[in-house]
Structures are given as C-alpha cells and as structure tokens.
Amino acid sequence: MLRLEDVLPLLGDFASVDAFREAMCAVLRDNGVRHADMRREMEDFTEASERIRYDCKSLQNRYGYLGSEQACDICGTPVQSRAFFLFPCTHVFHSDCMAAEMKLHLSTEQIAAAADCERRQQQLLRQLQDVRAVVASSGGLAKVPTGSSSSGGTDKESELLQAMAEQRQKFDSIVASQCLFCGDIMIASTSQPFVTTDEEKAAALWKI
Fold first, then answer.
1. What confidence tens digit (pLDDT) does each residue in 153-191 have?
2. pTM metric for this prediction
3. Between vectors from CA 123 to CA 111 and to CA 116, what angle results, nearest 5°?
C-alpha cells in the first residue's frame, strides 16, 4: 500500500501540494496520536520497571517465621536441625533435601555448575580451616600468605568467607531459584506419568 510519506520525497522543491493538504494533515494527526501512544507506553514500562526494581530490593529484607517444630516439606524432619530454605509461599526445605530434589529437574549444565560450586566451597572451607589452625597455634600472631603479599589471619579469613559466600549464592541461585511445590517445576510435573520407567517393574507386581 502506497503511503503519502512515500510520495513526498519524490516531489520537487517547488511542487504544489495543495491537493495533498488534507491528506498531509491527516498523516500528521495520525503520527501525533501514535507518538503520544508510544510515549504513554514508555512511561508505563518505566513505571513497571521501577516497581519491579523496588520489589526485588524489598525481597532482600523479607523474612518469615518458623515454629520450633516446623518440619521440612520433603523429609518431614525438624527443619531447624540444619541449613534450610524458606520461600514466600511458606514452604520450607532443608538445603540438602532441596538440592537433591532439584537436581532431578535441572539441565546437565546446571547440575555441573552446582557441583562446581559445591567443590569450590569445600576447597575454600579446607583453606579456612587451615588458616584458623595456623592462627590458633601462634596465638593470633601468625602471618598467613595470600598471593605475593602477606596479611594477617583475620584478613585471610575475611577473604575466604567472602569467596565462600559468593559460591553459596551461586549455588542457591541454581537449586533454590523457585519453590518445588509452587514453581514451574510443579506445573511441568503434571504432564509426567505417575510411574517412571525405573518403577515399571515394581508397579507390575501390583497388577491384579
């Protein structure tokens, strides 16, 4: 479809456009309406992004309450016996229970990344234990080498603790990105058979 704006560049500098005046005004009015609509959409998107940014920032300070006898929703044992995840939906899981269950639904790349985070955490933990042992044996006066320079044990401990926290955050972002019972994983599981291939032999024993 040929538009007026496609024809105008073809007209000479002194060409009369009286015959196109109404059409040109209509085009300008339409352009003005479209620009106003685009401006409103941009403002809406900006406002939405600000709300999302505020909500994400607020989540960092969000907290919940756990009873002394609150149980892990996977294994059923007291959740406060070891590290755990508490989701906004109030579901709570032990960290190791959550990781073991999530690995059944992760991709190969995600599983490898989670395993790498765990391996790095173990390495950093051993280094931290060695540093603390050296400092304790010297009464807190030992110099612990780090790279090409030297620093006190406290500085080295802080460095290792920071690195461990970073690895833990990466691990949590993989295995605890969503609640097992309320996230996309649970929705996707509704299309899976109740009996898996590995369970078919056991299920056959119950046939009447």
1. 578 888 999 999 999 889 988 888 888 888 888 888 777
2. 0.54
3. 15
Supply the range of the domain harboring residue 181: 79-189
Task: Provide the number of structural domains found in the chain.
Answer: 2
**Total residue length of the chain:** 208
Burial status of residue 86 (CB atoms within 10 A of its CB: 0-12, 13-18, 19 or more): middle
* In a domain? residue 17: yes
Residue 171 and residue 118 in contact, taking contact as beta carbons nearer than 8 Å: yes
Rounded distance between C-alpha atoms, residue 27 and residue 128, angstroms: 71
Kindly state whether residue 71 falls inside one of the protein's structural domains.
no
Cα distances from 101 to residues 18, 91, 130, in angstroms, run 74, 14, 33
Structure tokens at 37: 């609509």
From first CA to last CA, the distance across the chain in angstroms is 70
Contacts of 3 (CB under 8 A, 6+ apart): 27
